Amino acid sequence: MTDLATPERRLPHPVVLVLVAVVSVQFGGALAATLLPLVGVFGSVALRLALSGLLLWVVVRPRVRGRSRQDWLVVSLFAVALTAMNLTFYGSLTRLPIGVAVTIEFLGPLALAAVLSRRPRDLLAVASALVGVMLISGAVGTPWAELDLVGIALAGTAGVCWAAYIVLSRRTGARFERLDGIALCLAIGAVLAVPAGLLTAGSALWEPEALLRGLGIALLSSAIPYSLELLALRRLTAGTFGVLLSLEPAAAALAGLLVLGQVLSVVQLVGMLLVLIASVVVLGRPSGSGAAQGADPGDGGHPVPDTPA
């Protein structure tokens, strides 16, 4: 992981941070598919948040004292959004094909990117990314009769939570130095998820196999990508970040091929191309002050000053 003492100007470009996060979280998702049968939805989320929170707490050693009430409100809302996003998405995976669940969930950040965009070119990029996501996931060819309405609702809720996560991650990054915000967020999320995990999974949480897989998921799906995304969002607009996340389905397909042995079809490859084109379009636009200095998605792209420590 990046040296936490390194000044942000020496970090890789924020786009690189997002791309590494995208690849990491999808390989973590492939590993999570093997944990769900062992400890269930709540158990999987509890292990993921508890272990990743513990790892970051030890490494970051976040400052707790001297925080304002508004700081705690923002990071707590961030934790709620993150926890709910994981619970609802994992829940949807028990009812829907993973491609369909990913497509529905991804509508959240895509909608956020469309709402925040003020350029027709960006709206076309969002449309291209949406078509690409649907082709990659295979959602278009899935008969309606095979879909689970509860699963659809869970995946849709996960998408809403994902959009909220993007906005709240930026606000948290503006208020907390280094990686203090994500460390505190994961700790709060663990407090929310662990009791439910213990009630549903019981002693299965402490089985060596579950702990080992949970540790891998904690690193790949939480500690590494959330930290990188938080750092990247300090220098990217939320709209750009949302469309960059369109690479997630392509990364998921790659992880499925390498980890789960899933073969990619020609249609999926076409979908990947559309997603890549969308990302290139967004990356090719001129950089404004908001993207460079850390824009608040809620104020139209104006820089957000760091809250005094």
From TrEMBL:
Entry-linked InterPro entries: Diverse_Substrate_Transporter, EamA_dom, EmrE-like
Protein name as catalogued: Inner membrane transporter RhtA
Chief location category: membrane
Subcellular localization, as worded in the UniProt entry: Cell membrane
Signal peptide, first to last residue: none
Sequence intervals crossing the membrane: 12-32, 38-60, 72-90, 96-116, 123-144, 150-169, 181-204, 210-228, 240-260, 266-284
Keywords assigned: Cell membrane, Membrane, Transmembrane, Transmembrane helix
EamA domain span: 150-283
Membrane topology: Multi-pass membrane protein
Protein species of origin: Ornithinimicrobium cerasi
Gene Ontology CC entries for this record: plasma membrane
Database matches in SUPFAM superfamilies: Multidrug resistance efflux transporter EmrE
Residue ranges of the region described as Disordered: 290-309
Family per similarity comment: Belongs to the EamA transporter family.
Lineage: Bacteria, Bacillati, Actinomycetota, Actinomycetes, Micrococcales
Superkingdom of the organism of origin: Bacteria
